[in-house]
What does this fold into?
Amino acid sequence: MTTKIKRVSRSIVCPEGKECTELLIEWTAVKGKKMLRQIDCSNPMLSNFGTEDCKWTCWDRLSRRD
It folds into this structure.
């Protein structure tokens, strides 16, 4: 069985920090339904060892989208 993986880049307003950030999002199809597989975030307050701690609320929001 082959698995189709789709990757997209999307700019969103971070639900936690309220600033715009770039996400690399990976989706996979399981039994015809899209499933969120991975998110990479470019928020400098998180990726550059900043003092911010991420709760990944964007994951919750994106996983509910089709």
The chain has one domain: 5-63. The helical segments are 44-47, 57-63. The mean pLDDT is 77. The longest helix spans residues 57-63.
